[in-house]
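ok, trying the design again with the full structure, not the truncated one.
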C-alpha cells in the first residue's frame, strides 16, 4: 500500500549535505504534479551539469512543458526548455535580474534566485500568481533559508553522502528534525536581545553577550535574534548558565551539533523558536559519490523506525511508498 504525503503549497527543499539527493528530490516532486501547477526558484545557483565543488556529474533540474521557473537573466542562455518570459522582476542577482519564465518544452535550466529576505518573499508572492505550488531549492549544506516565514513546509534530503556510517547519518538527521520541532513561543522583537530575569525585563543590543553572561542565575528567558552558533553555546556552557529559555527566530538559526545540544539539555537550557517550520517529508539517498553506499532496504526500514515524518527512498522508483500528493 502506498503512503500518501499531503504537501503544502510553498515548500523548501534542502539537502543535509552535498549529494544527499536534493535535486533528485526536487525533480521527483515536480514529476508528481501537473506541470502548469508548479513554479520553481532557488536560493543561490542550482541545476549545473557538473558540481562546481566536487567536479562530479550531478542531476539537472528537469522542467516539463508548462512549468514556471524564476532565475537570473544570464542563466537563460543555457536553458534547453525554450523559456517564454512572463515578467522581469526588480530583484537583482550577480547574474542579472530575476526573470519569471514558463518552459515551452521539456528540458533543463539553471535556477538562480534571490538571497535576501524581502526579495524571496516578494518573488514567492509573484510566483503564486502563475502556479498553485512553489518549490524553493535550498543552498548547499545549509538549512538556513533567506526567509523561512515564506515557507509552509520543508522537505529534507539525507543520505550516505552525509556520513559513511548509516547510524551516524540517522543520528545527525534526527538532530536536525529535533531542531525543526522546537517549541513555538510568541513573537518578540527581532532587533534586540530581550532578557527576562527575576528582577526585571530589559533589552540590550544583540552584540552585548556579556549582559546575558552577567545575568547569571537570575536569567529566565533570552530572545536571541540571528544565528546561535557553537561559539555562543560554548560561552553559555562554560559560564555554567542554566535553567532558562533561549528563544531563536527559527530552527535554522540553531547552528549547533548534537554534542552541544546535549550540553544545553544537561544545563536545562531550553530552545524555543518564534517561527515554527514543519518538516513534511524526508527523502533518502543510499548512494554516495565516495563509493560508500548503504543497503537501501535497511536504510529505509531504519529511517522509518527513527523518524515520525513520512520517509521515501527518492532514488528507488520501485519503492512501494514512493508517492506524494499535493
Amino acid at each position: 500500500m502506498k503512503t500518501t504525503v499531503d504537501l503544502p503549497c510553498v515548500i523548501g527543499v534542502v539537502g543535509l549535505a552535498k549529494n544527499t539527493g536534493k535535486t533528485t528530490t526536487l525533480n521527483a516532486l515536480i514529476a508528481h504534479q501537473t506541470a502548469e501547477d508548479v513554479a520553481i526558484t532557488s536560493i543561490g545557483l542550482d541545476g549545473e551539469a557538473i558540481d562546481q565543488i566536487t567536479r562530479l556529474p550531478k542531476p539537472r533540474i528537469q522542467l516539463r512543458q508548462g512549468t514556471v521557473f524564476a532565475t537570473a537573466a544570464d542563466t537563460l542562455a543555457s536553458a534547453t526548455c525554450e523559456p517564454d518570459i512572463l515578467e522581469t522582476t526588480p530583484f537583482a542577482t550577480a547574474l542579472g535580474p530575476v526573470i519569471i519564465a514558463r518552459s515551452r518544452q521539456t528540458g533543463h535550466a539553471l535556477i538562480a534566485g534571490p538571497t535576501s529576505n524581502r526579495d524571496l518573499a516578494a518573488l514567492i508572492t509573484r510566483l503564486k500568481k502563475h502556479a498553485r505550488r512553489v518549490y524553493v531549492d535550498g543552498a548547499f549544506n545549509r538549512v538556513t533559508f533567506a526567509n523561512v516565514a515564506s515557507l509552509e513546509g520543508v522537505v529534507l534530503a539525507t543520505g550516505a553522502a552525509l556520513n559513511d556510517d548509516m547510524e551516524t547519518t540517522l543520528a545527525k538527521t534526527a538532530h536536525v528534525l529535533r531542531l525543526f520541532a522546537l517549541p513555538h513561543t510568541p513573537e518578540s522583537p527581532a532587533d534586540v536581545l530581550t532578557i527576562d530575569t527575576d528582577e526585571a525585563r530589559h533589552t540590550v543590543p544583540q552584540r552585548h553577550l556579556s549582559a546575558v553572561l552577567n545575568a547569571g542565575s537570575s536569567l529566565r528567558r533570552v530572545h536571541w535574534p540571528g544565528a546561535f552558533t557553537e561559539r555562543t553555546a560554548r560561552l553559555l556552557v562554560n559560564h555554567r548558565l542554566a535553567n532558562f529559555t533561549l528563544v531563536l527566530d527559527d530552527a535554522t538559526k540553531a547552528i549547533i551539533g548534537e554534542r552541544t545540544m546535549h550540553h544545553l539539555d544537561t544545563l536545562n537550557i531550553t530552545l524555543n523558536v518564534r517561527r515554527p517550520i514543519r518538516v513534511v517529508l524526508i527523502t533518502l539517498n543510499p548512494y554516495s559519490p565516495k563509493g560508500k553506499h548503504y543497503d537501501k532496504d535497511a536504510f529505509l526500514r531504519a529511517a522509518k523506525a527513527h523518524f515520525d515524518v513520512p520517509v521515501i527512498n527518492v532514488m528507488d522508483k520501485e519503492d512501494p511508498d514512493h508517492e506524494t500528493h499535493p
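Keeping the full-length input from now on. Confidence is low (pLDDT under 50) at residues 52-57, 318-326.
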